[in-house]
Design the sequence.
């Protein structure tokens, strides 16, 4: 997945991540919300929704934002976003698991697994692959 460091939405989300690291949760959430409000393209909307999902207070709200992120990721043409699908489906599956909807959880974990080939061979990719493996074991 390509991120343009000069893109305003990427900059807002990056700033939000810095605020998160400083323990400024409310400010980080506001930064992600600002990014959502200013996002224009499907890729920008995906990015903002993805980060907003992380800052929700309920599983239902997190699921809503994860599904919104997926909706916009699926609209981006080409293979650029396919590396994001494993994480998105893993996050969505986890929400369903937390809501005790194990059928939807498992189907999303399987979708995550089906896109795992698009992950890089690095620490992040390994973390997501391990997350998918553990998730599938939990709902087996």
Sequence:
């Amino acid at each position: 997945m390509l991120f343009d460091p000069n893109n305003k939405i990427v900059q807002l989300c990056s700033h939000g991540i810095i605020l998160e690291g400083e323990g400024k949760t409310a400010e980080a959430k506001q930064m992600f919300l600002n990014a959502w409000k200013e996002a224009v393209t499907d890729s920008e909307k995906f990015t903002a929704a993805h980060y907003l999902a992380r800052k929700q207070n309920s599983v239902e709200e997190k699921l809503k934002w994860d599904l919104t992120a997926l909706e916009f990721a699926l609209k981006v043409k080409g293979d650029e976003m396919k590396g994001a699908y494993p994480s998105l489906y893993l996050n969505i599956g986890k929400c369903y698991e937390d809501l005790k909807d194990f059928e939807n959880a498992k189907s999303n974990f399987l979708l995550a697994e089906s896109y795992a080939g698009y992950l890089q061979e690095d620490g992040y990719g390994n973390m997501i692959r391990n997350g998918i493996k553990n998730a599938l074991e939990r709902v087996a």
